[in-house]
Amino acid sequence: MKSDGLRGTLKESLKDQITGAIREDDRALVKFHGMYQQDDRDRRAERSEKKLEWLYSFMIRLRIPGGFITAEQWEALHHVAGKYSTGVIKITTRQTIQLHGILKSNAKPTIKAFNTAHLDSISACGDVNRNVICAAHPKFSPAHAEIFEYAQKLSQLGLPKTKAYYEVWLDEKPLADKTEVEDDPLYQNRYLPRKFKIGIAIPPTNDVDVFANDCGLVAILENDKLVGFNIAAGGGMGATHGNPSTYPRLGTVLGFVAGEEKVMKAVYEMITVQRDFGNRSDRKLSRLKYTLDNMGVEAFKAELEKRCGFVLEPERPYQFTSRTDFYGWHQNHEGYWYYTAFVENGRVLDDEQHALKTAFLEIAQLRKTNFRFTCNQNIIIADVKTEDKDEIHAILDKYGVIASTEGSTPLRRESIACVAFNTCSLALAEAQRYLPDLISKIEPLLEKHGLQDDNISIRMTGCPNGCARPYAAEIAFIGTAYGYYNLQIGGDRTGTRLNKLYKESLNEENIIEELDGLFKTYSENRNAGETFGDFASRVKWVEY
Ligand code: SRM
Ligand code: SF4
Q1: Are both 131-161+170-323 and 413-538 of the same fold?
Q2: Which homologous superfamily does the CATH classification assign to the domain defined by 413-538?
Q3: Which end of the chain is more exposed for a tag (fewer CB within 10 A), N or C?
Q4: Cis bond leading into 422, ω under 30°?
Q5: What is the pLDDT of residues 195-242, one digit of tens each?
Q6: Which residues 6+ apart lie within 8 Å of 427 measured at CB?
């Protein structure tokens, strides 16, 4: 990429007041700075009719490894969102935050305000190592803090060396000799063929969907101590309708690696293998999963080990038993309390039912907590001392957060939808704006068949790219056209078996009809404790 170290002509693009957009070449580049140019798709027709250009704005995604921020940072985020964006704070499926609707003239002030709060968006998008995700809840693991540190270190390891971000957005003086200072052994000024994602899970929970990542690390604990990680390669969800050479894939465990130096080296070299062997001619076939399948697992592993200078040990045993968040109050081994609040589809806002945004602001202003985001798009009010718990609880209660967290059905709380309309340029169908309504129509079906306590996982995306990791759900709706979805079933509840296509392009009426029949058969014939996804796979509703 001829980008002048990711600078391109961004400075000129930002100054151009004739258009709300940036130059064509800068659009790909700006992603490396954590930003997407978008437009309001609801208003395209109206704008075109009035002969106006589309209503362009920017989405900015933060880099928050492990999804941890302080109360001060939440407060800053709240105000930045109110001042420069639509005001909705969106928790993503990769444990970070996106703000939408930021006008070009506000992009720089937004980044500056984030910087003042020690937040950045470097590499949150683009063909680089993305936000590193890590098991969110410290409840189960005394080693959580140590494992969380890996997310920070791996994020640092994968940062590009260019100082362009600081020059373009923060007005730092350009470097006199860029070549010397910006030498980047990892990205070598050609970056990666495609995005690269790292996730860290701590069994028995797989809240990060570790096998959906290019590189998945499964922490292995013995007597509550971290002894190392099983390392997996080749996870990824994206596919394209009608292109059978694209497919979702779960990561393959290559082996076990112990010790920080070796773990960092193994991940680093996995990135270099992808950099050197990944497909640079077809972006649809350029993720690590295709590199791995093209090379073959054994050849990939041999190349990795050659570059590492050591061999991976045999995979160590582990077991995932759940992927859900631990809603409500829980105490960790140090005596601190954590409240996991349900945030439907990660959208933090105030509405008729509850005032999540006001509640979290009031809590942040007390300066008695931290905040953690989960890959299920929820928020954890973290590190609460016993003496502060009642005060925090009262705020959560006052603004309806307790009622919505504890009063929502298991089905709703397990559901995930991607953004889709009105900002995602790739959306074929609605997702986060529609799934809540569809869930309200599915809930009575569960009641009817006595399944209301069943926490079946449902995920919806507006296209087959898989941003809500739908292929790893028990039931998935994948947008094919406006109002139409492929119905996929048979995934398991812990993210270790993908679902398969059951019926193509269903509208709402067809979806309800199909699910009614499926739930009936499931409720009448399931074995004790058998989940919907396991049943669907056992009775071969879909072929594996
Ligand atoms: Fe994603 C592209 C939103 C997690 C696979 N994703 C997009 C874009 C940027 C659309 C675009 O390229 O113009 C979406 C912006 C929508 C908007 O208006 O905000 C978008 N992806 C999201 C988020 C916000 C969904 C959400 O509602 O939470 C998630 C942000 C994560 C983050 O903080 O970094 C998000 N995207 C994912 C995940 C889940 C994950 O990583 O665990 C996946 C599947 C895993 C994977 O990468 O395989 C995912 N997004 C994609 C793909 C398909 C990539 C592929 O290999 O084919 C695209 C399209 C692309 O890259 O060309 C995409
Ligand atoms: Fe957009 Fe498709 Fe991702 Fe949904 S899955 S956010 S529609 S790219």
Answers
A1: yes
A2: Sulfite Reductase Hemoprotein, domain 1 (3.30.413.10)
A3: C
A4: yes
A5: 999 999 999 999 999 999 999 999 999 999 999 999 999 999 999 999
A6: 41, 419, 420, 421, 462, 463, 479
- At residue 544, the pLDDT reads 84
| CATH architecture designation of domain 328-408 | Alpha-Beta Complex (3.90)
CA atoms lying within 13 Å on the CB side of residue 414: 23
**Active site annotation includes 197:** yes
For 225, which DSSP code?
E
Ligand 2 site residues (CB inside 6 A) read 418-420, 424, 426-427, 431, 461-463, 465-467
Domain 131-161+170-323 superfamily per CATH: Sulfite Reductase Hemoprotein, domain 1 (3.30.413.10)
pTM for this one?
0.97
Q: How far apart are CA 157 and CA 193, in angstroms?
A: 18
Q: Where are the domains of the chain?
A: 131-161+170-323, 328-408, 413-538
Task: Output the six-digit token pair for 322.
Answer: 């759940």
Which residue shows structure tokens 């969102």? 81
Peptide bond into 193 cis (omega under 30): no
Distance CA 412, CA 416 (A): 8
Give pLDDT, residue 126. Answer: 94
From residue 185, give the alpha-carbon distance in Å to each of 4, 159, 164, 389, 504.
Answer: 16, 11, 17, 48, 46
- Give the closest ligand to the alpha carbon of residue 463: 2
Task: Report, as ranges of residue numbers, the positions in the chain whose pLDDT lies below 50.
Answer: 1
What confidence score (pLDDT) does residue 475 get? 98
E strand spans, 164-222: 198-201, 215-222
In degrees and rounded to multiples of 5, residue 493 shows phi and psi of -95, 0
Residue 59, beta-bridge partner list: 36
Task: Give me the pLDDT at residue 1, please.
Answer: 47
- Atom 28 of ligand 1, residue of closest alpha carbon: 92
Answer for the pair 345, 435: CB distance below 8 angstroms, yes or no. yes
- Only one residue has tokens 């992009």, namely 107
Q: Determine the pLDDT at residue 142.
A: 86
Neighbours of 77 (CB within 10 A): 25
Residue-level pLDDT at 177:
66
- 130, 262, 301, 412: the catalytic one is 130
